[in-house]
Amino acid sequence: MMLERRPDCRFVIFGDEKQVLPLIDQHPKLKAVTTFHHTEVSVKMDDKPSQALRYGRYKSSMWRAIDATKTGEADVTVSAGNTGALMAMSKFCLKSMPQVDRPALAGLWPTARGESIVLDLGATIGADARHLVDLAVMGAAMARVVLDLDRPTVGLLNVGVEEIKGVEAVKEAGRILRESNLPHLAYHGFVEGDDLGKGTVDVVVTEGFTGNIALKTAEGTAKQIAEYLRAAMGRSLMSKIGYVFARGAFAALKDKLDPRKSNGGVFLGLEGIVVKSHGGTDAIGFASAAELGYEMAREDLMAKVREMVAASTRPELTAAQPAETE
User: What's the whole-model pTM score?
Assistant: First the structure.
């Protein structure tokens, strides 16, 4: 699928030759542009990150794929494996960018206006003001690449839009972003949960615990709506007849709610591009994740992140220590 849309792509695949090579052989065009490396070790989905690092470092397919990006054999690593292990190995192998303490997982979010970038979706739990500012800067850099925006709007997810609401870390991050007036980022202010779907801003920033819950809630809601529609359309003869006349509209809605079209989260803040695909996706979803990585590499995401992070860490833009919730 991706090769049809991106014929200039080349693939480096790591895995067990007994399982992978027969699949590659079924697709001659893919085989012609693929370099395969056999690995006997694979990271299990239930492995703890520390376990994966202990037995999988240097040997596993996950590590070797990340290392291929480090050495330049590949421009991007794409994996549907264990998220915690992928983050731990990526950080250990690629290292974080200077001035970035913790990488973040950023993803595309379907909205009423198109798409937004949301981060952090679960790479790290908790955040002080400085980390939230880093997330805003890195998310804006990604929006410049993916959404083709010169100055993306950025909002901090909060319990209200008033400046007096929320935990101290979020309020302090808002102050820094307001006062910094960064050239490639337009700070909107606080946004609430319903703004995610509205597309109020181009980039929504939150810490990983909240972001991951929001992501899973949205995925569950999309499935729930699909089930409600399916049940309603088959409830009576008139419903079935109505579906026949409106099936074009329902097909468009199904396409809009399809999570495979927005599959793929990018680990921002690393010295290399790593894309995490949903473990339960199909070929369409994995191709979406791979194409996201392709765009990141083609538009030189890392250079944009470095530029914007450097601009946001001027000495005068410092954060106070986080305090307790009001």
Answer: 0.81
